[in-house]
Amino acid sequence: MSSLATFGGSLVIGLSRCDSCSHIFYTYPGIRNWKFPYNQLLRVGSRRDSRVFCQVGETNNEPAGGTEEEIKSMEVDQGSVSDDSLIQNRVEDPQTVAESQLAMSVMHESNGPVKNGTDEKDADQEKTENVDVPVATGSPLPGLKKQNFDESVRIPKETIDILKDQVFGFDTFFVTGQEPYEGGVLFKGNLRGQASKSYEKIVRRMEDRFSGLYKFFLLINPEDEKPVAVVVPAKTTQPDTTAVPQWFAASAFGLVTIFTLLLRNVPALQANVLSVFDNVELLTNGLPGAFTTSLVLIAHEVGHLLVAKEAGIMLGVPYFVPSWQIGSFGAITRILNIVPNRKDMLKFAAAGPLAGFAVGFVLLLLGFILPPPDELGLVLEPSVFHESLLVGGAAKIILGDALKEGAPLSINPLVLWAWAGLLINAINTIPAGELDGGRISFSIWGRKIASRLTAGSIGLLGLSALFNDVAFYWVVLIWFLQRGPIAPLSEEITEPEDNYKAFGILVLALGLLVLLPFPFPFASTGEAIPSF
Alpha helix locations (H) across 32-146? Predict the structure, then answer.
């Protein structure tokens, strides 16, 4: 006779009764040698806050087998034990309790549960049943498209039983409930120990038993903010294939971006774009500016590539987005595989902007320090530097009293070229959607706060779009291409270390310094036009 004994509504222990000696055996793996008579089982289960009942399989609601004499003897034994004696036994024998807990923590490491003929018969009956169960709501796997799976893709019940009995356990994730989800299963329960270590144990056990057939996620349920374990067929997490070859589409976007970068640095052609066809040679005048701005963009992408290679993150072909206003909006790069954890996501997302800021700031300082390539240089109004807190502050420190309100200033054009690169880099650090800033905020503060920051950022950009055309295009770009949500990570519970959080916050702060205006006035008006 095999059954499930449930204690307190949450702890479920598989039991079997020997027909010859009437002893109760644990049927979970790793505890095959434990046995005790009926009265001892009832002594354990006779607390007021506990209850013992048997369920043969999942569809049989009849009471456990046995003769009427055995059932009556069970009731007599149960009634003869008082709660006080139970408490006393638990206090006086801590060694027994410790041994029981130790055995429970390792019981799922064995090869598999012991099944008798009744278990196999019940399993065969359950395989023939088709139950229409609704899919779990509140997607803990954002970013994965909802698909219609056939029966060959869905996880069979036998596999689900192995997951519950042999993969999960008291030492990792104690399952209290399950729901079907997108061809897989969402397990609810209690996470034991550190999330990263429990995740590693579960992944090892799944690899030993299924050899990469299924993908495991340890996430936060958006419904109640509690940890959940999700197992889906590995084939459902593969990236979608595009109708147009990636390199072809990326090359087309890249050519248009090169054109807009050149066009931005030739003011004579910006008023009438169609005049480019009659004055193609003028585009060569924009080569120095386009090259300087491209250095910042290339540094940004190289930073992503280096960290992605280290963390095992597979990237698609970067799509550079052209812009009539500033030459380019940067690049959109798809992540092709599942990022392991929030630490790796933070390192990847912050590396690109950090490299771009480093190169752009060095070029900006060189532009302020070096004299113009010709005697005149680029003449502009000092009020231009009020548009950026970082650039305006650098100009105030380096130029000093030479920077005067109302007095035109001749500077090296390298300043504006580097500034354009810094601006493109800073826009990508906006904490919204799948931008680098959105990924950084998600890695540091989690998915819930990141979604709120996304909504706030899009709202502020929407208001700014009433006065700034660059902000308008960015609202459109984020809403249609980068709104998210960010694809699930393998393990989203463990937070990054404080030093990595500091780097992420530094990147967000540098982006704000570039985007926010410089509110302080410069020196009083002068007549002379200084040259640097």
Answer: 38-44, 68-79, 83-92, 94-106, 117-127
Tell me phi and psi for residue 134, to 5 degrees.
Answer: -65, 150
**Residue with the two structure tokens 């206003």:** 325
328: enclosing H helix or E strand? strand 327-332
User: Which H or E run includes 16?
Assistant: strand 11-17
pTM (2 d.p.): 0.69
Residue length of the chain: 532
Task: Give the mean pLDDT of 30-43.
Answer: 40
Distance set, CA 90 to CA 42, 44, 84, 260, 505 (Å)? 15, 10, 10, 77, 51
Q: Which has the closest alpha carbon to 339: 433, 430, 443?
A: 443
Closest-CA residue to 431 (of 361, 374, 508, 498): 508
**Do the beta carbons of residue 290 and residue 261 sit within 8 Å?**
yes
Count of C-beta atoms within a 10 Å radius of residue 25: 19
CA distance 418 to 299: 13
pLDDT at 13 over 70: no
pLDDT: is 222 or 4 the higher one? 222
Residue 492's identity, in one-letter code, is: E
3-state secondary structure of 80: coil
- Got the DSSP string for 419-478? HHHHHHHHHTTSSSTTSHHHHHHHHHH-HHHHHHHHHHHHHHHHHHTTT-HHHHHHHHHI
**Whole-angstrom Cα distance, residue 355 to residue 297?**
9
What is the per-residue pLDDT for 394? 94
C-alpha dihedral, 489 to 492 to 498 to 503, nearest 10°: 30
Instruction: Provide the pLDDT for residue 241.
Output: 58
Helix (H, G, I), strand (E, B) or coil at 388: coil
At 92-140, the pLDDT tens digits run 443 443 344 434 443 444 444 444 444 444 444 444 343 333 333 334 5
Q: For residue range 255-314, list pLDDT tens digits in order.
A: 999 988 988 888 777 777 777 777 777 788 889 999 999 999 999 999 999 999 999 999
